[in-house]
Design a protein that fits this description.
412 residues, alpha+beta, Outer membrane efflux proteins (OEP), 4-stranded antiparallel beta sheet, 10% strand
Length: 412
């Protein structure tokens, strides 16, 4: 084996080892980065659900204000005037001014006030649940970007290694050490790697475009979570979605109580002032009247509202049970995925260490003239692929942890 051949092969092996070391590094260039907490806030401000949450809070405040009123409905002003000029024409005149004040039934006001308080709490719970939903979208988009960045880095490393190989093979073909068929094969492999790199960059561009559309931020995300939930964590009643469902049940129940308390139209207290002028030189008179107006037969008309309120309660309870089952299933899936990914990462690291050691041994054998160049290149390629597998599993582990946090209702 001539000296030039050995020197070129050793240089190629060293270059491949350098590429493998680069595969464990972060993507080279980022103009700016943003953590998930700031990204969530930016994404939340762009959603229509944030406007809806503000509207629900304002509506709850309006309901509380109405429930605190001393009257069950707006007062009514009554005006009446009587004149006999078109009949007997005796000069009789009568004018009356009255005010009707709708009253509360016993416990009706307290029930309505309790329902308005429940509505305010439900609006707050719905806001937290909506933010958690947006947080899930942000997490998925962020880890999609990070995953595609990893794929671009690995594809770039593969392309760099195969380019170095193609150049070395070209030199050896020119020196007469290899056949031209080997040069064609190495060039074909390099072009295939170039295509994979272009495809990886396209996927990254698509992931970044989705990230920008979701958050409005051109800064790319970093793999960070404020807390790292343990794999054995259980579903808590403080989970935003579960809490929102529970508050919705309480709201429906309080509304049912409020509807039952107001099944009849409220009575009205009527106060009036009357001025009477009998005419024909008789003296005029003034009087004050007090009356109570009691609506009759309103229970039947109230029946549809009562049925609707009971239906809302039944639906809210069913949704709560269904949501709990879904959250338990999502948590079990996330926990299983985290355990599986952790085990796979450990195996990939062990495999990469073994293949790296094997590549070093074959490199020593090659330097001693006991192994061929194809054997060395295959060993280096296997080691490089194993390192790439480690990098992919590290990214997958980060995504699995983020999904576990999402399933537990932990905000980023």
């Amino acid at each position: 084996m001539n000296t030039t051949f050995v020197r070129q092969a050793c240089a190629l092996a060293a270059g491949l080892a350098l590429v493998i070391d680069c595969a464990s590094a972060q993507p080279a260039v980022r103009e700016a980065s943003i953590d998930l907490t700031d990204a969530l806030e930016a994404a939340w401000q762009r959603t229509t659900r944030s406007r809806e949450a503000v509207g629900q809070a304002n509506r709850a405040k309006a309901e509380q204000s109405a429930a605190m009123s001393i009257w069950s409905a707006p007062p009514v002003l009554e005006l009446s005037y009587r004149d006999d000029r078109w009949l007997s024409d005796t000069g009789a005149r009568e004018a009356e001014l009255g005010v009707a004040l709708p009253l509360w039934f016993p416990n009706q006001r307290a029930a309505r006030l309790k329902a308005s308080d429940a509505q305010a709490q439900t609006a707050s719970g719905a806001l937290d649940a909506a933010r958690l939903h947006v947080a899930g979208q942000v997490r998925e988009a962020a880890w999609d970007v990070l995953t595609q960045e990893t794929e671009v880095l690995l594809a770039q490393a593969q392309f760099t290694a195969l380019s170095a190989l193609a150049e070395d093979v070209d030199r050896r073909v020119a020196a007469g050490d290899l056949a031209r068929a080997d040069a064609l094969a190495s060039r074909a492999e390099m072009l295939g790697a170039s295509g994979e790199l272009a495809q990886a960059r396209q996927h990254l561009e698509r992931a970044v475009a989705h990230w920008v559309a979701l958050t409005g931020q051109t800064a790319l995300p970093v793999a960070s979570e404020r807390t790292e939930a343990p794999a054995t964590a259980e579903l808590s009643e403080a989970h935003p979605a579960l809490r929102a469902a529970s508050l919705n049940v309480e709201l429906a129940r309080s509304r049912l109580v409020s509807v039952e308390a107001g099944r009849n139209l409220p009575p009205e207290l009527v106060t009036s002032f009357r001025h009477t002028d009998p005419g024909r030189n008789d003296p005029s008179s003034n009087s004050i009247g007090v009356a109570v107006r009691l609506p009759l037969g309103t229970a039947g008309r109230h029946r549809p509202q009562l049925v609707a309120a009971q239906t809302d309660l039944d639906v809210a309870q069913a949704n709560q049970v269904e949501l709990r089952i879904q959250l338990q299933s999502a948590l079990a899936t996330a926990r299983s995925a985290l355990d599986s990914t952790t085990g796979q990462l450990s195996e990939e690291r062990s495999r990469a260490a073994l293949l790296r050691e094997r590549a070093k041994l074959i490199d020593k054998s090659f330097r001693a003239g006991q192994a061929s160049l194809p054997d060395l290149l295959r060993a280096e390629a296997a080691a490089r692929q194993a390192e790439a597998g480690v990098r992919r599993q590290e990214t997958a582990l980060g995504l699995a942890r983020a999904r576990l946090n999402q399933a537990l209702g932990v905000m980023p």
